[in-house]
Amino acid sequence: MDFQNVIDREQTNSMKWDFYPDVYGADDLWPMWVADMDFQAPKPVLDAMHEVINHGVFGYHRRPNSLFDATTSWLKHRFDWSVSAEQIVFTPGVVPAISHIIQTFTEKGDGIIIQPPVYFPFYALVNNNERNLLRNPLQETEEGFTMDFEDLEEKMKEAEMMILCSPHNPIGRVWTEEELTKLAELAEKHGVLVVSDEIHADIILEGKHTPFSKAAAGKDVETMTCLAPSKTFNLASLQLSYVVFENSESKKAYENHLQREFVGINNPLASAAAEAAYRHGEEWLEQMLEYVKDNVQHVKQYVENEMPEVKVIKPEGTYLIWIDMHGLNMENKELEQWLRSDAKLALSDGPNFGKEGGGFVRMNAACPRETLEEGLRRLKEAYDRLMA
Ligand SMILES: Cc1ncc(COP(=O)(O)O)c(C=O)c1O
């Protein structure tokens, strides 16, 4: 696969390329916001989808056992995590899955912990379901971002549930086994259900991903893990994800909830794509990770050399780069305005991820180098004008 190859996504109804004017109010920006990749999916995935299309009958579909097999084999192979098909429930997205978990396992007013700055739908998931949002902000230290375990323990005293983001979007931490074990100990002590959003689990640039459920094994703590091939293989619009349950009664309760809500996923293209990705996509994934690592390194070096007042937080995981712009001494609104009107960039604004994201932006590095360089060029030119 040639990741250098620029594929024109304009006028394809791409959220990132075609709909940014609705969000940013300008139509001449360079889009580096939505968390998808500008790469084509692996060839075996496209072949599998073509086969379904060639058959041409799109009547009601059931997820085949072979998809469950491919999924459990992937989890065993990539994370040495033994999961059986009976533990898995497929869902039409990680975000809806978390919403349904909240509805099934908590009551109105219950406390749910999140760790800001964090993937912004987590706020809406808690608020829309009328649960009580408990914030356990990450701490920035000399060694980078870490969890504030002292505060976490305080929040756990009032919480029924926690939504863990692992790896963490937007700060890019790949939590260590030690950190996750500590979290599991606290969750056990305070009886908190941990829902671990591991949608980025396959996108590890440095270190090793530990499924939270493995770190919690042997402890009396309930965990549910949300995963998907969507970020890994750029299949997000196919809407296929899944939850791994450790407790069969909880799984039943969740399935009953989905049934009551008539939520199912019946898309044969998604099943074919996911199965092919898990069976035959690993080589593509390894190449993509190398390419993205180089991109991330390039951004870091370029920014260090050319924009000394800007600081790149190098991600250990995800293809998203958290960039600290406090050195430009701008208020949030001013920074947003500058990025749009002067740099002509559509980056994700830090405050979207919570107030701790003020002064930061998130840049998506899953694109051909040429696309990345255009974004960096625009940023540098605006930076030079600002510093002049
Ligand atoms: C942490 C995290 N969870 C969930 C999602 C989206 O999940 P889905 O499209 O399956 O609802 C994203 C997408 O950016 C994400 O970063």
Q: In words, what does this structure look like?
A:
This protein has 388 residues and is α/β, with parallel strands linked by helices. It folds into two domains: 15-41 and 283-387, Aspartate Aminotransferase, domain 1 (Alpha-Beta Complex); 45-280, Aspartate Aminotransferase, domain 2, CATH 3.40.640.10. The chain is built from 14 helices and 15 strands. The chain has helices at 15-18, 20-24, 43-55, 65-79, 94-105, 121-128, 149-156, 177-190, 212-215, 248-261, 268-280, 282-306, 332-342, 369-387, and strands spanning 30-31, 88-91, 111-114, 132-135, 139-141, 144-146, 159-165, 193-197, 223-227, 241-245, 311-313, 320-324, 345-346, 348-349, 360-364. The strands form four sheets. The protein has a seven-stranded mixed β-sheet with strand order 2-10-9-8-7-3-4, with helices on both faces. Strand 7 (159-165), helix 8 (177-190) and strand 8 form a beta-alpha-beta unit. Helix 5 (94-105) crosses helix 10. Residues 35, 93-95, 119, 165, 169, 197, 199, 228, 230, 236, 241 line the site of pyridoxal-5'-phosphate. Pfam families: Aminotran_1_2 (PF00155). Residues 52-379 form the Aminotransferase class I/classII large domain. One of its GO terms (molecular function) is pyridoxal phosphate binding.
